[in-house]
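Severity: low
Component: inverse-folding endpoint
Summary: output formatting inconsistent between runs
Steps to reproduce: submit the following structure tokens with default settings.
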């Protein structure tokens, strides 16, 4: 006990003479807090730089995707049959009721609609940025029942069967690498010489003529569609019964849109996904008048980033009417860097607190500028991570940035404290902090739990190590004064505190 008292008094004397001779002990933490707030300024610049690099990436990707037609969307097959009707209207000049002939189309979707395709993307680069680009052939099968018009109260004599057209809808014709080879009942379809005005519900389409007798009785469609594109592939379930099958060697697919696959398999060789979609789960009717329902406007049949995709104000449905397969990169390094910056304030506080505790224990006064330089080194970690992640794998980039910052901070700390052990201690604190941050990044589902436990442990450790610090004064004395004669403990007068060797370790 006597030895411990002697040690306590020695440490207290050093602190009293050299740590804060003219200041209360709480002044330094206040200065540290202000410096942490100032370091948020360069962190904001780094975050802005990340956003700029993301925009540059999107620009580079768009320049690659544009010649390929972007992200392809196969909107499906629709039969359009024109009809004539007489409508009455009031002539404003003569104030009489007049009659005129009006033409419109009745549109019908298939009874069954099947797409089967093999898509194997490859990477195409523009500078340091890459985009998954692919070519594929779609095997198409569809069946149409006999044309029905009675529900529209139209006389059969007004139906123009001979002008019926089959419409293949696509988002962009650039995605078609060859003319779609479709057959109707085994006979090759003939392209329509003109595009019938008002017939197509799609933004872009290919038109085929359909024999009159086949329209009345029903028919089947078979063929193939050669497509190209990048990043994703979309299909629209227009029919009463839809079946889609996609195979690919891509190992990191993303399934989104309005429906998930009914069956899927994913391994190191790629994936296979199957969809079975009933027309009852879509917003598309079995048949409709062209003037009453515009597919391209009334549904989200194109991807959510398409500025031309709009929904009618009368529609309340929110989910997109597509099946979407995204060919994504497993780790988006820009989003990972953003997440790192989100937790930056916490991981700036930890090394500052560690240095402050070392300052208390070693009785070596550290200038605020020295704190600030260490903080700048910690901020540069995020810039290094951003820079390296554009050229190397994210995990490797994280390791390089961590090793660089820990080494610099360790050597600098050892120099300012004039003892290697303090440099080793601060290096260990930095390494553990970055290890915790890496765990948070890798475990999205448990990020909040890991972060909460980490903060709690830091606060608990700080409370334990500073439990005997006199924050009101400038003296750091032993909590207990022992009298050899009585063996009793007495507290010194006034507000006192101690920070002895027994409090550390």
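Observed output (run 2 of 3):
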């Amino acid at each position: 006990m006597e030895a411990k008292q002697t040690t306590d008094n020695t440490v207290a004397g050093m602190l009293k003479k050299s740590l804060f001779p003219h200041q209360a002990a709480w002044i330094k933490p206040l200065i540290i807090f202000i410096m942490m707030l100032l370091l948020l300024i360069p962190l904001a610049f780094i975050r802005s730089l990340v956003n700029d690099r993301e925009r540059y990436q999107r620009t580079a990707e768009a320049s690659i995707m544009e010649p390929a037609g972007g992200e392809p969307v196969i909107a499906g097959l629709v039969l359009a049959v024109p009809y004539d009707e007489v409508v009455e209207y009031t002539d404003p000049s003569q104030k009489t009721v007049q009659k005129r002939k009006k033409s419109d189309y009745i549109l019908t979707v298939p009874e069954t609609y099947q797409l089967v395709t093999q898509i194997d993307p490859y990477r195409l680069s523009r500078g340091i940025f890459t985009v998954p680009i692919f070519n594929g052939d779609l095997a198409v099968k569809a069946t149409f029942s006999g044309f029905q018009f009675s529900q529209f109260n139209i006389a059969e004599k007004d139906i123009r069967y001979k002008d019926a057209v089959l419409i293949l809808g696509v988002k962009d014709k650039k995605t078609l690498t060859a003319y779609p080879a479709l057959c109707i009942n085994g006979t090759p379809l003939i392209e329509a010489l003109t595009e019938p005005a008002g017939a197509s519900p799609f933004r872009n389409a290919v038109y085929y003529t359909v024999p009159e007798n086949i329209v009345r009785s029903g028919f089947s469609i078979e063929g193939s569609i050669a497509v190209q594109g990048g990043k994703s592939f979309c299909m629209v379930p227009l029919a009463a019964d839809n079946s889609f099958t996609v195979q690919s060697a891509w190992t990191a697919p993303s399934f989104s849109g309005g429906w998930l696959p009914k069956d899927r398999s994913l391994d190191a060789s790629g994936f296979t996904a199957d969809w079975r979609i009933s027309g009852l789960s879509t917003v598309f009717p079995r048949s409709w008048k062209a003037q009453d329902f515009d597919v391209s406007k009334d549904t989200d049949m194109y991807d959510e980033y398409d500025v031309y995709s709009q929904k009618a104000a009368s529609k309340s449905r929110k989910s997109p009417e597509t099946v979407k397969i995204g060919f994504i990169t497993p780790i988006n390094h820009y989003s990972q860097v953003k997440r790192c910056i989100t937790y930056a304030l916490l991981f700036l506080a930890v090394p500052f607190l560690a240095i402050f505790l070392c300052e208390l224990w070693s009785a070596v006064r550290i200038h605020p500028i020295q704190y600030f330089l260490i903080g700048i080194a910690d901020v540069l970690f995020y810039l290094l991570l951003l820079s390296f992640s554009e050229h190397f794998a994210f995990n490797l980039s994280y390791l390089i940035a961590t090793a660089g910052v820990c080494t610099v901070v360790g050597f600098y700390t050892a120099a300012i404290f004039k003892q290697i052990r303090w440099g080793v201690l601060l290096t260990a604190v930095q390494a553990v902090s970055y290890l915790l941050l890496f765990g948070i990044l890798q475990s999205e589902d448990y990020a909040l739990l890991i972060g909460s436990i980490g903060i709690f442990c830091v606060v608990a450790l700080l409370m334990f190590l500073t439990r005997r610090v006199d924050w009101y004064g400038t003296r750091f004395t032993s909590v207990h004064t022992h009298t050899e004669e009585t063996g009793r403990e007495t507290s010194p007068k006034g507000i006192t505190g101690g920070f002895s060797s027994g409090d550390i370790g």
